[in-house]
Amino acid sequence: MPVKIYSFKQALWPGPVRLTLAEKNITDIEVVEVDLPGGENFSPEYLRINANGTVPALVNSETNKILDDSTTITEYLDEKYPGTELYPASDRAAITHWIKETHRIDGNFLAFSPADPVELEQKRAFVEGFFGGRVKALTEFIQKQDTPFYHEKLGQLKSILVAYEHPEQAQPLFDLHRAEWQKAESYLDQLDAQLASGPYIVGEKYTSADVHAIPLLVRLKSVKGDVVLEGRPNIQRYLAKVASRENFKSVYGTL
C-alpha cells in the first residue's frame, strides 16, 4: 500500500484519524503502530517521517507526501476518499473553529500529571512504566546522537517523573494540572452550550469537528470520570449518540 498512517491505539490524537478511516470505510491504507512506551517515536528513523516525534503521521510513498498532524491528515482523507463528507464547505468555518478549540486542551498532560497526592498514587505505576521506557530510549539515542531535541524531550519527561519520585516536590505539578483542568472545564461548558442546538457539534451533520472532539472527550472521561458529564446534559446525550456509531465502536469499543 503506498499510503501508511503511523499511529498508537492508546494515543489521543491518532483518534480523529482512526475515526475518519472507519467513518469513510477506508481499507487501502496501512496503519503502522508506533511503540510510544518504548520511545520508538524518538528514533532517527521515525524522526525522518515526523520531525516532531509525534503520532499520527501519514506518508504517501508515491507522491512523497508527508503529513504530521491529525487536522491535515483528516483533511487529506476527506478530500481523497468518498463517503461521509467531514469538511462540508458550508460548515468549514465552524468546523475549523471547534477543531482549534479542541486542540487547545492538553489531554496528554492531564492524563500523565496528578491533581493531588491521591491521584499521584493512582497514576504512579502507569506513568512510571510508560515514561520509564521513553527515558531509557532517549538516553540511548543521546549516546548515539546528542541533539537539543533529545535533551528537550528528556527534560519534559523528567519534569513530570520527579513529582512521582519525590511527592514532596509535586505541588507545582498539581497546580499546573488544576490550571489545565480549568481550561478543559471551560471548553466542556462551551461545548455543552453548542450541542444544545444540534445532535452534532455544528448541527445536523457529523463532521470532522466531531471526530476531533470525541477522542478528547473519551480521554477526559478516562482521566476525570463522570465529572465530565455532571451538569452537562448535552454532552452526555452527545456521547451516547456518537458511541452508538459504528466508527466509534471500531475505534473505542464501548464508552
Describe how the helices and strands are arranged.
Elements: E1 3-7, H1 14-23, E2 30-33, H2 44-47, E3 57-60, E4 65-67, H3 70-80, H4 92-103, H5 107-112, H6 117-144, H7 148-165, H8 171-195, H9 208-224, H10 233-243, H11 246-252
Parallel strand pairs: 1-2
Antiparallel strand pairs: 1-3, 3-4
Protein name: Thioredoxin-like protein
GO molecular function: glutathione transferase activity
Domain GST C-terminal: 116-255
Task: Tell me what you see in this structure.
The structure is a single chain. The protein has 255 residues and is α+β, with helices and mostly antiparallel strands. It has a domain of 84 residues: Glutaredoxin (3-Layer(aba) Sandwich). The chain contains 11 helices and 4 strands. It has a 4-stranded mixed β-sheet. A hairpin with a 4-residue loop joins strand 3 and strand 4. Helix 1 packs parallel to helix 3, helix 1 packs across helix 9 and helix 8 crosses helix 10. It is globular. It starts with a strand and ends with a helix.
- Report, as a whole number of angstroms, the end-to-end distance: 32 Å
Total of DSSP H or I helical runs spanning 4+ residues: 11
Q: Give the helix/strand class.
A: alpha+beta
Unreliably modeled segments? none
Counted beta strands: 4
Q: Going across the major beta sheet, what is the strand order?
A: 2-1-3-4
CATH architecture of the domain at 3-86: 3-Layer(aba) Sandwich
CATH superfamily heading of the domain at 3-86: Glutaredoxin
Strand content bin: 5-15%
- The CATH class of the domain at 3-86 is Alpha Beta
What is the share of helical residues?
55-70%
Gyration radius from CA atoms, angstroms: 19 Å
Form type: globular
Question: Which fold does the CATH topology of the domain at 3-86 refer to?
Answer: Glutaredoxin
Mean pLDDT: 97
Largest sheet: 4 strands, mixed
Written as H for each helix and E for each strand, in order along the chain, the element string is: EHEHEEHHHHHHHHH
GO molecular function: glutathione transferase activity
Protein name: Thioredoxin-like protein
Domain GST N-terminal: 1-85
Domain GST C-terminal: 116-255
